[in-house]
Design a protein that fits this description.
Elements lengths: L1 H8 L16 H11 L6 H10 L4 E7 L5 H8 L3 E8 L2 H13 L6 E5 L11 E7 L8 H11 E12 L9 H13 L1 H4 L11 H10 L10 H9 L4 E4 L1 H10 L9 H14 L5 E7 L3
Parallel strand pairs: 1-2, 1-4, 2-3, 4-5
Antiparallel strand pairs: 5-7, 6-7
């Protein structure tokens, strides 16, 4: 059954349309990055540079690495010397290899078309990296247990992940606030607020059929992280940005305050206990 789920989840990857996601918006990206670190290049890269004293880590592993874009960026930044990349999609591995060759970085990467969690790896890596991949795991507790075991003493576990509602089934409070925001700004955004839909059992099942690996245990990640590291993840927020951000990307010329108002709503929801993204950087004791 697990092999079948991997096969379905690893179907041919289709890129998103440009400027259609909140991730395409520099203001929203900055909001998350400065929460992780205000040093160096900010974000998780800046936090890692601060933690390592700006020394490159010899060997790292990234599970669910996709096209390897973020991993290549860490190599080019001088933060990692060599990566093992694990993926269950042959298309993404092929694209990752092509891009690494194009940038002259092939020697810095070994690609594996395999489930990393099925391999018994003990104290091999200086960095275990989870970037928007841990929430695709069917057992996040096992994934984090594997991560800690795979780290050398003194190595780092770095996580930047979606930790919101499972199967992307939005909470009624999130949905209500996002709809209200879109309604209040309809003249500018021009989006039917009903496009933001609350979670239901039927929609959860549809999401499972669409992609079985999409957030099956996402909401369990913070507790599992704390259980295996003894530290709490940093909750970044993101519910309002996730639900509304893609609709307002590109509208800053018409309303310079639109992004700040989404962020203000996001902070308010985070204070109410609604969030979609979390971050953690932990060093294994020596």
């Amino acid at each position: 059954m697990k092999l079948l789920l991997h096969k379905i989840s690893g179907r041919k990857w289709k890129p998103a349309k440009p400027n259609s996601r909140w991730q395409d918006n520099p203001r929203f990206v900055e909001y998350f990055q400065t929460q992780m670190s205000t040093a160096h290049e900010t974000g998780y890269a800046g936090a890692l540079r601060s933690a390592t004293g700006d020394r490159p880590l010899p060997r790292a592993v990234s599970v669910g690495a996709g096209k390897g874009n973020k991993e290549r960026a860490l190599v080019k930044a001088g933060l990692v010397e060599h990566f093992d990349l694990y993926e269950v999609s042959a298309d993404r591995i092929a694209e990752s290899q092509r891009l690494a060759a194009e940038e002259g970085l092939s020697a810095n990467f070994d690609e594996h078309l395999a489930d990393a969690l099925e391999e018994d790896i003990v104290e091999r890596y200086d960095l275990v990296l989870w970037l928007s991949a841990l929430h695709h795991m069917f057992d996040v507790d096992k994934a984090l247990e594997w991560s800690v075991r795979a780290l050398k003493p003194g190595g780092f576990l770095l996580i930047y992940e979606y930790v919101g509602p499972t199967r992307l089934q939005w909470h009624p409070t999130e949905t209500r606030c996002a709809r209200r925001f879109l309604k209040e700004n309809h003249d500018l955004v021009g989006v039917d607020p009903k496009r933001v839909r609350r979670g239901t059992t039927f929609r959860r099942y549809k999401q499972f059929l669409r992609d079985p690996s999409e957030a099956p245990q996402s909401n369990l990640i913070p507790a599992a992280y704390e259980r295996h590291t003894g530290e709490a993840m940093q909750i970044l927020g993101g519910s309002a940005i996730h639900l509304c951000g893609g609709f307002v990307t590109g509208l800053e010329d018409q309303d310079p305050t639109i992004h700040d108002r989404v962020i203000a709503l996001d902070k308010d929801l985070r204070n109410q206990g609604h969030y979609h993204f979390g971050y953690g950087l932990w060093q294994k004791p020596t």
